[in-house]
TrEMBL record:
Domain Sdz-33 F-box: 121-190
InterPro entries, per database record: F-box_Sdz-33, Zygotic_Embryogenesis-Asso
Superkingdom of this protein's organism: Eukaryota
Protein name: Sdz-33 F-box domain-containing protein
Pfam entry (one): FBA_2
Protein backbone atom coordinates (compact mmCIF):
# COMPACT_ATOMS: atom_id res chain seq x y z
CA UNK A 1 0.00 0.00 0.00
CA UNK A 2 1.17 3.53 -0.69
CA UNK A 3 1.03 6.43 1.70
CA UNK A 4 0.96 10.20 1.47
CA UNK A 5 2.27 12.90 3.76
CA UNK A 6 -0.01 14.36 6.41
CA UNK A 7 -0.44 18.08 6.89
CA UNK A 8 0.25 18.42 10.62
CA UNK A 9 3.16 17.19 12.67
CA UNK A 10 4.93 16.19 9.46
CA UNK A 11 3.35 12.75 9.85
CA UNK A 12 2.27 10.45 7.03
CA UNK A 13 -1.46 9.94 6.62
CA UNK A 14 -3.12 6.68 5.63
CA UNK A 15 -4.40 7.79 2.22
CA UNK A 16 -6.39 5.79 -0.32
CA UNK A 17 -4.21 2.84 -1.50
CA UNK A 18 -3.02 2.40 -5.08
CA UNK A 19 -2.76 -1.37 -4.59
CA UNK A 20 -4.02 -3.89 -2.07
CA UNK A 21 -2.14 -7.06 -1.10
CA UNK A 22 -4.14 -9.89 0.45
CA UNK A 23 -2.20 -12.86 1.83
CA UNK A 24 -4.29 -15.50 3.65
CA UNK A 25 -2.23 -17.84 5.83
CA UNK A 26 -0.71 -20.81 3.97
CA UNK A 27 -1.96 -19.51 0.62
CA UNK A 28 -0.44 -17.51 -2.21
CA UNK A 29 -0.95 -13.80 -1.89
CA UNK A 30 -3.20 -11.88 -4.22
CA UNK A 31 -2.35 -8.33 -5.33
CA UNK A 32 -5.07 -6.00 -6.56
CA UNK A 33 -4.10 -2.81 -8.40
CA UNK A 34 -6.63 -0.02 -8.19
CA UNK A 35 -6.06 2.59 -10.94
CA UNK A 36 -9.13 4.64 -10.01
CA UNK A 37 -9.68 4.12 -6.32
CA UNK A 38 -12.60 5.89 -4.68
CA UNK A 39 -12.31 4.07 -1.34
CA UNK A 40 -10.43 5.32 1.71
CA UNK A 41 -8.06 3.10 3.68
CA UNK A 42 -10.74 2.47 6.30
CA UNK A 43 -13.32 1.58 3.65
CA UNK A 44 -10.90 -0.87 2.04
CA UNK A 45 -10.31 -2.54 5.39
CA UNK A 46 -14.05 -2.95 5.98
CA UNK A 47 -14.46 -4.25 2.41
CA UNK A 48 -11.80 -6.94 2.88
CA UNK A 49 -13.22 -7.92 6.27
CA UNK A 50 -16.62 -8.37 4.66
CA UNK A 51 -15.23 -10.51 1.82
CA UNK A 52 -13.42 -12.85 4.23
CA UNK A 53 -16.21 -12.74 6.82
CA UNK A 54 -13.76 -11.70 9.54
CA UNK A 55 -14.63 -8.59 11.49
CA UNK A 56 -11.89 -8.96 14.10
CA UNK A 57 -8.30 -7.79 13.64
CA UNK A 58 -6.15 -10.22 15.62
CA UNK A 59 -3.25 -7.87 16.26
CA UNK A 60 -1.41 -4.78 15.09
CA UNK A 61 2.37 -4.64 14.71
CA UNK A 62 4.52 -1.50 14.78
CA UNK A 63 8.04 -1.96 13.42
CA UNK A 64 10.62 -0.15 11.28
CA UNK A 65 9.85 3.56 10.74
CA UNK A 66 6.28 3.27 12.06
CA UNK A 67 6.86 6.54 13.90
CA UNK A 68 6.62 8.39 10.59
CA UNK A 69 2.87 7.82 10.57
CA UNK A 70 0.12 9.69 12.37
CA UNK A 71 -0.89 7.56 15.38
CA UNK A 72 -4.34 9.17 15.52
CA UNK A 73 -4.88 8.27 11.87
CA UNK A 74 -3.83 4.66 12.54
CA UNK A 75 -6.25 4.40 15.47
CA UNK A 76 -9.06 5.90 13.40
CA UNK A 77 -8.58 3.36 10.60
CA UNK A 78 -7.97 0.19 12.61
CA UNK A 79 -10.00 0.96 15.73
CA UNK A 80 -9.62 -0.83 19.06
CA UNK A 81 -7.13 -3.68 18.83
CA UNK A 82 -6.24 -5.50 22.04
CA UNK A 83 -3.10 -7.38 20.88
CA UNK A 84 -0.21 -5.01 20.17
CA UNK A 85 3.35 -5.71 19.00
CA UNK A 86 5.92 -2.92 19.43
CA UNK A 87 9.34 -3.44 17.88
CA UNK A 88 11.98 -0.94 16.74
CA UNK A 89 9.73 1.84 15.45
CA UNK A 90 12.49 4.45 15.52
CA UNK A 91 11.02 6.67 18.26
CA UNK A 92 10.59 6.06 22.00
CA UNK A 93 7.94 8.77 22.30
CA UNK A 94 5.91 7.15 19.52
CA UNK A 95 6.06 3.80 21.35
CA UNK A 96 4.58 5.45 24.43
CA UNK A 97 1.86 7.00 22.28
CA UNK A 98 0.94 3.55 20.98
CA UNK A 99 0.37 2.35 24.54
CA UNK A 100 -1.81 5.36 25.27
CA UNK A 101 -3.88 5.30 22.06
CA UNK A 102 -4.63 1.57 22.13
CA UNK A 103 -5.38 1.38 25.84
CA UNK A 104 -6.64 -0.96 27.22
CA UNK A 105 -4.34 -3.64 25.81
CA UNK A 106 -4.85 -7.32 26.65
CA UNK A 107 -1.72 -8.80 25.10
CA UNK A 108 1.46 -6.77 24.68
CA UNK A 109 4.63 -7.87 22.88
CA UNK A 110 7.67 -5.62 23.42
CA UNK A 111 11.47 -5.49 23.46
CA UNK A 112 13.91 -3.73 25.76
CA UNK A 113 15.09 -1.60 22.86
CA UNK A 114 11.56 -0.20 22.43
CA UNK A 115 12.17 2.07 25.41
CA UNK A 116 14.59 4.77 26.55
CA UNK A 117 17.87 3.36 27.89
CA UNK A 118 16.55 -0.15 27.07
CA UNK A 119 14.59 0.01 30.32
CA UNK A 120 10.99 -1.20 30.36
CA UNK A 121 8.96 1.28 32.44
CA UNK A 122 7.57 0.05 35.75
CA UNK A 123 4.15 1.30 34.66
CA UNK A 124 4.13 -1.37 31.93
CA UNK A 125 5.38 -4.23 34.09
CA UNK A 126 2.72 -3.53 36.71
CA UNK A 127 -0.25 -3.39 34.31
CA UNK A 128 -2.74 -6.24 34.48
CA UNK A 129 -2.34 -7.64 30.96
CA UNK A 130 -3.63 -11.05 30.02
CA UNK A 131 -0.22 -11.66 28.49
CA UNK A 132 3.07 -9.78 28.39
CA UNK A 133 5.88 -10.95 26.10
CA UNK A 134 9.31 -9.36 26.46
CA UNK A 135 11.98 -10.17 23.89
CA UNK A 136 11.95 -12.43 20.84
CA UNK A 137 13.11 -16.04 20.49
CA UNK A 138 16.33 -16.37 18.44
CA UNK A 139 16.94 -12.62 18.67
CA UNK A 140 20.44 -11.39 19.55
CA UNK A 141 19.03 -8.79 21.93
CA UNK A 142 19.36 -9.77 25.57
CA UNK A 143 16.82 -8.59 28.12
CA UNK A 144 18.06 -6.81 31.23
CA UNK A 145 15.75 -6.84 34.23
CA UNK A 146 16.18 -6.83 37.99
CA UNK A 147 14.54 -8.98 40.63
CA UNK A 148 12.39 -5.97 41.54
CA UNK A 149 11.22 -5.82 37.91
CA UNK A 150 10.09 -9.45 38.08
CA UNK A 151 8.22 -8.76 41.30
CA UNK A 152 6.30 -5.95 39.54
CA UNK A 153 4.84 -8.35 36.95
CA UNK A 154 1.07 -8.21 37.18
CA UNK A 155 0.13 -10.11 34.00
CA UNK A 156 -1.57 -13.49 34.06
CA UNK A 157 0.95 -14.84 31.55
CA UNK A 158 4.49 -13.50 31.15
CA UNK A 159 7.11 -14.70 28.66
CA UNK A 160 10.63 -13.27 28.84
CA UNK A 161 13.31 -14.31 26.35
CA UNK A 162 17.12 -14.03 26.66
CA UNK A 163 16.92 -12.70 30.21
CA UNK A 164 20.23 -11.79 31.84
CA UNK A 165 19.72 -12.89 35.44
CA UNK A 166 21.41 -15.33 37.78
CA UNK A 167 19.85 -18.54 39.17
CA UNK A 168 20.21 -16.96 42.62
CA UNK A 169 17.76 -14.22 41.66
CA UNK A 170 15.34 -16.74 40.13
CA UNK A 171 15.51 -18.67 43.39
CA UNK A 172 14.72 -15.53 45.37
CA UNK A 173 11.79 -14.76 43.08
CA UNK A 174 10.24 -18.20 43.63
CA UNK A 175 10.65 -17.91 47.40
CA UNK A 176 8.99 -14.48 47.38
CA UNK A 177 6.15 -15.89 45.28
CA UNK A 178 5.68 -18.54 47.96
CA UNK A 179 5.28 -15.73 50.45
CA UNK A 180 2.60 -13.99 48.34
CA UNK A 181 4.21 -11.88 45.61
CA UNK A 182 2.79 -11.72 42.05
CA UNK A 183 -0.72 -12.89 43.08
CA UNK A 184 -2.21 -12.61 39.52
CA UNK A 185 0.52 -14.69 37.89
CA UNK A 186 -0.72 -17.90 36.28
CA UNK A 187 2.13 -18.78 33.95
CA UNK A 188 5.71 -17.52 33.69
CA UNK A 189 8.25 -18.64 31.10
CA UNK A 190 11.83 -17.38 31.14
CA UNK A 191 14.47 -18.13 28.53
CA UNK A 192 18.02 -17.26 29.48
CA UNK A 193 21.42 -17.74 27.82
CA UNK A 194 24.49 -19.50 29.21
CA UNK A 195 22.55 -22.23 30.99
CA UNK A 196 24.74 -24.64 32.93
CA UNK A 197 22.31 -27.55 32.88
CA UNK A 198 21.34 -29.34 36.08
CA UNK A 199 23.68 -27.15 38.12
CA UNK A 200 21.59 -24.06 37.36
CA UNK A 201 18.36 -25.93 37.97
CA UNK A 202 19.61 -27.08 41.38
CA UNK A 203 20.53 -23.49 42.24
CA UNK A 204 17.11 -22.22 41.18
CA UNK A 205 15.41 -24.70 43.54
CA UNK A 206 17.97 -24.38 46.33
CA UNK A 207 16.25 -24.40 49.73
CA UNK A 208 12.79 -24.92 48.23
CA UNK A 209 10.73 -27.96 49.16
CA UNK A 210 9.34 -29.72 46.10
CA UNK A 211 8.19 -33.05 44.75
CA UNK A 212 8.35 -34.37 41.20
CA UNK A 213 5.12 -34.13 39.24
CA UNK A 214 3.86 -35.50 35.92
CA UNK A 215 0.57 -34.26 34.51
CA UNK A 216 -1.09 -37.56 33.64
CA UNK A 217 -4.70 -36.36 33.79
CA UNK A 218 -5.08 -32.57 33.93
CA UNK A 219 -3.77 -30.04 31.45
CA UNK A 220 -2.89 -26.45 32.28
CA UNK A 221 -4.81 -23.59 30.67
CA UNK A 222 -4.83 -19.83 30.96
CA UNK A 223 -6.58 -17.05 29.05
CA UNK A 224 -3.14 -15.77 28.06
CA UNK A 225 -2.07 -19.07 26.44
CA UNK A 226 -3.10 -20.14 22.95
CA UNK A 227 -4.07 -23.65 24.06
CA UNK A 228 -3.87 -25.96 27.12
CA UNK A 229 -0.46 -27.42 27.88
CA UNK A 230 0.87 -30.59 29.48
CA UNK A 231 2.87 -29.54 32.53
CA UNK A 232 5.63 -31.69 34.04
CA UNK A 233 8.21 -30.70 36.64
CA UNK A 234 8.57 -29.98 40.33
CA UNK A 235 5.58 -29.07 42.51
CA UNK A 236 5.95 -26.31 45.08
CA UNK A 237 3.33 -24.53 47.21
CA UNK A 238 2.54 -20.98 48.24
CA UNK A 239 1.81 -20.08 51.86
CA UNK A 240 -1.94 -20.41 51.20
CA UNK A 241 -1.64 -23.89 49.70
CA UNK A 242 -1.76 -22.84 46.03
CA UNK A 243 0.29 -25.27 43.94
CA UNK A 244 2.72 -24.35 41.19
CA UNK A 245 4.82 -26.55 38.93
CA UNK A 246 8.36 -25.54 38.03
CA UNK A 247 9.49 -26.96 34.69
CA UNK A 248 12.95 -26.93 33.10
CA UNK A 249 13.82 -26.96 29.41
CA UNK A 250 17.15 -26.87 27.60
CA UNK A 251 17.55 -23.11 27.93
CA UNK A 252 14.50 -21.98 29.87
CA UNK A 253 12.39 -22.58 32.94
CA UNK A 254 8.70 -22.04 33.58
CA UNK A 255 6.23 -21.82 36.45
CA UNK A 256 2.56 -22.80 36.11
CA UNK A 257 0.26 -21.81 38.97
CA UNK A 258 -2.63 -24.26 39.36
CA UNK A 259 -5.49 -21.92 40.14
CA UNK A 260 -8.92 -23.59 39.92
CA UNK A 261 -9.73 -22.11 36.51
CA UNK A 262 -6.34 -23.21 35.14
CA UNK A 263 -7.17 -26.92 35.31
CA UNK A 264 -8.33 -28.14 31.90
Amino acid sequence: MYWGMGAYGRKKKLTAPRSVVVKPFEKRRATFYVPKNALTMKEWLKHIQLIYNNQKIDYIEFSDDSHEFDIDDIKEVFGNITDVYIENTGCFTFNQMILEKFFPIEKLFIKNSSFQNSKIPESILSQNFLRLDIGVIDDDETITMTLDDLLLLNSKVANIENLQMTPKHFNKFIKLWQKGSNPRLEYLSIGYPNVEGSRDFDNILNGIKYNKFRSSENMFQSAGLLEPEVIDGMNIHRYDGTKATIGFGRDNWSMAVWMDHCIA
